[in-house]
C-alpha cells in the first residue's frame, strides 16, 4: 500500500606631598576550550599570548557534537528538484517508465532517507494502492552514509515498521527478505526485497505486498527505486516488474 496516503580592580592610592603609584600587573592564564567529541570532553589549560579575559565556552558546542542516529530518519523538508520527462518518473539520478495502470502521482516523502521523490500509484481497493517510485537518497546529517547495501535494507525495513502506512492491518510479518548486488544501466547498486504478509478485515483482493528497494550509485549520488505491489493482483505485480526493468540513469 502506499499504503495510506521535527576581577574588579582597586583604586590607585595618593599620599600628601608625595605621589606614589603602584602598578599591579596581573599575568593571567586563559583556559583553552576544546570542541566536544562524542561521549567525552577534555579541556586543558594553555598559555595565552596576551593578557585578557578568560575564554568562555562556545555557545555552539552542543551543535558541534555528533547527532544521535535515528534508525528511520526522514528529511525535515521535502524538496522536489527533478522534473519528469514525458511518460517517465525521475528522482535523484534514476528514471523509470510509468506502467499503464499506475495513473495517480504522489511524492514518496513517507519513505525514510529519501527526498526529491515521485511515485505512481494504482488503486487496489478501499484506500489501498500499489506503487512504484524513485528518489534521491538523503542520509541523516552528521551520520556517515553506510553504503548502498545497508541503505537498501534499512529503507525497506523502515517501510515495514511504519505502521501508519499499513492502516488497520494486523499480524504483519516480513518473509523472504534478501539483499543482492545488481547493476542498473551500468551503475552498481543493491536490491533488497521481501514479502509482507498481513491480516485485514477490509481487504479482499490481497493479503500480502511485494516490496522492493534498489539503491544505486549514480553520478548524481545515491538514488533509490521503491515498489510495493499487491500480491494477488496480477496486473499490478507485472507492472511493478516492468517498472523495475525499465530503471535507468537520467535520459
UniProtKB/TrEMBL annotation:
Enumerate the residue ranges of region (Disordered). 39-92
Q: Which UniProt keywords apply?
A: Membrane, Transmembrane, Transmembrane helix
Q: Where is the composition biased (Low complexity)?
A: 41-59
TM spans, by residue? 12-36
Q: Where is the composition biased (Acidic residues)?
A: 60-71
**UniProt-recorded name of the protein:** Uncharacterized protein
> Which species?
Brachybacterium endophyticum
Amino acid at each position: 500500500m502506499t499504503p495510506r496516503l521535527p576581577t574588579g580592580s582597586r583604586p590607585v592610592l595618593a599620599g600628601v606631598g608625595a605621589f606614589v603609584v603602584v602598578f599591579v600587573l596581573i599575568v593571567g592564564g586563559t583556559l583553552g576550550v576544546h570542541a566536544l567529541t562524542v561521549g567525552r570532553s577534555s579541556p586543558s589549560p594553555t598559555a595565552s599570548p596576551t593578557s585578557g579575559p578568560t575564554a568562555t565556552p562556545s555557545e555552539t558546542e552542543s551543535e558541534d557534537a555528533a547527532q544521535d542516529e535515528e534508525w528511520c530518519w526522514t528529511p525535515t523538508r521535502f524538496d522536489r528538484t527533478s522534473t519528469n520527462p514525458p511518460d517517465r518518473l525521475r528522482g535523484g539520478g534514476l528514471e523509470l517508465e510509468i506502467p499503464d495502470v499506475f495513473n495517480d502521482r504522489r511524492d514518496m516523502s513517507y519513505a525514510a532517507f529519501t527526498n526529491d521523490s515521485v511515485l505512481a500509484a494504482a488503486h487496489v481497493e478501499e484506500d489501498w494502492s500499489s506503487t512504484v517510485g524513485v528518489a534521491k537518497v538523503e542520509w541523516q546529517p552528521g551520520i556517515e552514509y553506510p553504503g548502498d547495501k545497508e541503505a537498501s535494507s534499512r529503507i525497506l525495513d523502515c517501510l515495514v515498521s511504519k505502521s501508519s502506512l499499513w492502516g488497520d492491518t494486523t499480524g504483519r510479518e516480513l518473509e523472504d527478505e534478501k539483499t543482492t548486488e545488481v547493476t542498473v544501466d551500468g551503475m552498481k547498486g543493491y536490491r533488497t526485497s521481501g514479502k509482507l504478509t498481513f491480516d485485514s478485515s477490509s481487504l479482499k483482493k490481497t493479503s500480502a505486498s511485494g516490496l522492493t528497494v534498489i539503491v544505486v550509485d549514480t553520478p548524481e549520488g545515491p538514488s533509490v527505486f521503491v515498489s510495493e505491489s499487491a500480491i494477488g493482483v496480477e496486473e499490478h505485480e507485472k507492472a511493478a516488474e516492468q517498472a523495475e526493468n525499465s530503471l535507468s540513469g537520467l535520459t
